[in-house]
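Page 47, continued from p. 46.
Same chain as before, 187 aa.
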Amino acid sequence: MNKRRFRADDPERKIWQDPEKIFSAIGLSAGMVFVDIGCGEGYFALPAARWVGPCGKVYAADINADAVAALWEQAANEGLSNLSAEVKAAEEAVACEGCADIVFFGIDLHDFANPERVIRNAKKMLKPSGRLIDLDWKDEPMEFGPPQEKRFPVHKAQGMIQSAGFRILSVQDAGPYHYLISAGSPV
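Result:
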């Protein structure tokens, strides 16, 4: 298994995981509040800040201080004043209460020490009409990504999300390597 780490600006990654296509699929639009938990160097957070524009807001959190520093540097270089990032474990990250249109887990739910707690925190951050989005690795052999035994099959991710009080709105393929779960709070 290739342990390759993809940079935030990796053009090869964009071929099989294009943030703009994902944002379009999840309905992200100008003026929204987007929370990226486990943001790394900003592969999703940076384009999200461009996508939501100056009237929107992006909150990002990651446990890796070097990754967050790289994200801050790139945001400053681009003048993205609508992006806020902090070094924080996902289990402790609650960027705001009831303000997020979308809380996003970008191929990292399986990495969290306590994914159930992270999902419950997402519920705190979401507006009543907000959505939790889990983009994650399919449970099948492939050349890169986490070891297959570490990945969450779609049914496991769905079960954890539903156990936290969410209603699954859709499950779809997101390219050759990932699935995309969209969930909202029950009415």
